[in-house]
Here is the input.
Amino acid sequence: MKRSRTRLLLYIPLVAMFIFYLVPLYVMLTTGFKSFEEIDLQTMWSLPQNGLHFDNFIEAFTKLAPYFKNSILMVVPAALISSVLGSLNGYVLSKWKFKGADVIFPLILFGMFIPYQSILIPLVQFMKEINLYGGVSGLILAHVIYGIPITTLTFRNYYATIPKELLEAARIDGADIMGIFFKIMLPISLPSFVVVLIWQFTSAWNDFIFAVVLTGSQSWPVTVALNNMAGSQIISWNVQMAGSFLAALPTLLIYIFLGNYFLRGLMAGALKG
Here is the structure.
């Protein structure tokens, strides 16, 4: 009896949070399927009365398609590069301690706490100096640099759980520092790679500040294009909501289909320490 009451007390807040987070998605979808004449604050919560208007999603996708390409071209390399660099950093900082390592690691982590807004002006100046301002390449570099602290932390904590005897045995067999990494550490790093790739993909895909500051109109990712799709006079909220759902769909699908792997990575020690 007590166990049933405990479960009930656990499920009540979980269900409440589930509903709370689904409310925006409900409004987004119902508005996206409505005709323009049905859009009104008083009928915001009601279902479409004149059928489902899939043409809203077709129109939104047509407008956003080029910017989806920009987002993919930016997100994929940014997530992969920052993950690989983070794995190398974590490997060295956890298994090959050197003089000053205990100082360098906190300095790397300090990058996690620097607000985006505080470095925008010097970042723009730096991108102009290296001729990467206004394009996708500059945005990739920004996300790689800002992703290194969290990926380093994740891999360092994961590699710290691996027994030193495994590395010592490899060294006895003649493996050098990079041989141990590629032949031993990298193959068993799948849980951490899943965690950081999902994390970095989501972070880069949802970014707006770096994107709107560092890119030009031809290089906008989908988040910036969605903001500029509203127009200036009359806003077609049905098309806007359809576009918002399409822009959020990749991250939703990743967590729906890869969420179990993400949790397994966390449980495997990827964020312990």
